[in-house]
Structure formats: structure tokens, C-alpha cells
Predict the structure.
Amino acid sequence: MIIMDVRIDNFYCFRNFHINMSYPKRIVGTTIAHEYLEDRPNFRYKKVNILMGSNATGKTTLGKMLMMFANCFGDENYKRFKKAITDESREALLRVDFVSEMNKMYRFDLSIQPKSMQENSDDIKVSLASVEIGNRDSYETCARKLDNNQGEEEEIDKIDTGGWSFSYAEDAWKAQGYDAIEDKSEYLLILEKLLKTLDPSIEKVIRVDEVENTYAIRLLGKSILIQNGKILDDKMLSSGTKAGLEIAYVMASLICNMHHLYYCDELFSYVNGDIEKACLSILIARLEGRKQLFFTTHNIDILDMQLPKHSFVFLKKDKNNRETPITCVYASDYLKRNTDSLKHAAENDLFSTAPEMEKLYEILDL
């Protein structure tokens, strides 16, 4: 599944929020290959979406909205969206344009009526429409067809999404149960190489055949068990090393072609910046076929990576803007030349996304 466009209103912190994952023209000499459908070259999409911004600008909640949307393809449980409504006196809306394995673009629309108008289960309305992607079509031409009600109705349980993976920083401290990937020979190799990089004192990582879904980390003459994706005695390991479990899963599942859509939210909060850049470059290198990555980070050094400028989106929060408190600032709208430094632009707050520090410095007056 490739996410092309998302509109959210009255869920979590979002009001009239819009983010788009198409881009206007192909870039010569780009470092990300095939950012378009393989047999539809005009249908361009951003394979890599680096989301940056201050705290509380919606990076994590955007992931949670997309995760709820993706989970609907497995269970069609739309009631989960009710818990995310901000103002129950207003209608809540979600629209997602996406592409599956077929050469079709789909539009998913969900609306929940205000609480005062809710009388039965019909207060949640869901529709799914599709249009064929022609040989010369772009995202924009397909979107116009859907805008003009030219789409055909679809059943959500008939669509092959290719699978999805949503990972968050707090997952490093939870039992995950990576059963589906632990049988892959690549997983143990990736886990060991990553953990050794995060902690050079680790000697090796081995499978414990006597106990199901269990591995052992050998270091300093001791064994630390990992069972069902959770480290049982983690006092000897750093926070970054513990985060390595979830990072290894994401890398292994991508390399083993288990999912098509990945959302990695602050997985590297406790990890050295150079290691984060190296892991991100590996993930990008393995985004083959119709795969897509969303990656949130506060690491400004990521801006130095040789990626297309359209890969970077800054989320901006304006508490004085009640109609659209969170907006997207696209780096490619500001920087047009290949020689323009994205890092320098961010350091000089060209995108006006730096946090306000006045309240913090008022502490000095106490």
C-alpha cells in the first residue's frame, strides 16, 4: 500500500490537516530509485517521507491515525476512531488516497457525526472508491476523477494492501512477539550485527532452542534473554541497545519483504546519530517495488543525507491558528537548487518550525 494523500479533521490534534505524498516532476540524478509506479512513470510518489518538527506537532499521532486506517483492512472495525475524536460536538473526518498492488487508486472516506446527532451504529459512514490508473495518469489526474465522482465502489476486504508495520519508541520496552520473522535466517544475523554496533561489548546473539521465541545476548561472560521480543533482564543494557530490538525487526521485515508500508516513529531517540543515518540508508536502499517509508526524527544531521528535498516535511504547530493548528511545510517548496543546504536552512529556521523558547527562559526570572 502506498499512501498518496491524507486529510484529517477533528481527530487528535488535527483540524483541517493535509499532507500529500506526490511530487511534481521526476528528478535527474536522484538517490532514490523508481519513485513512481513501475509501469506508470507519470504516477510519482515519495518512497521516503522524513517527518521533522518540534514536540507535539503531530508526528506520532499521524502514525496512529494511519495505523488505525490500515488496521481497518484487517477487521473493518471503524469504532476505534471514536476514541480519537477531539470535539464530539463536531463532525470528524478522515480521507486517505492510496494505491495497492493493482494499478488502481483508492479513496477511503470516513466520517463520524457529532454526538448530538448519533442515534445508532449508522453514525459512522465509510466509503471506498477506486479509479484505474491509466498509462499516462499522474496522482493529480486520478484525484480529479475521484473528485468528480467517477470512481467505482469497492469492498475493503477485497484489497491486497501488501501489509504494514508501525513502530514507536515505546515498543522497545514492550513484549512484541516477532513470531512471523523469527523463523527467517536473516533476522538473527541482522539482530546480532545491529546489537553489536550499538554495544561493542556484546559478543554474540544466539537462538535458545529449548524455549520458544527466545534469544540470548552474550556479553561480559553473561547471558541476557530476549523472549517474545522483550529483554527479560535489561539492567546491563543501554536504552539504545534495547531500542535495537524494534529497529532490527523493522530492518529484517523490510529485507525479508514482509510489508510494504513502514512508519518508524522516533525509533532512534536513544541511538547515536551516525548509527541512525546508517540504518536509515539501509532501509532506503531496500525500498524495492511498491514500498514506502515514513520516518520521524529530531536528528538534524539527517538533513545532510543526499536525499531529494521532497523527501523532507516539517510539521508546524501554530496555537493561534484555530482553523488549521498543524500544517505541513515542504522543504522542496523553499529550496529549488541541488546546491541549497537543507540543514543550513533548518538551522536558520527558514521554515519557521523552531520551538518557542520564551517561556522556558522565563525560569531564569524566578
In short: The mean pLDDT is 91. The longest helix spans residues 59-75. The chain has two domains: 2-163+280-356, 174-258.
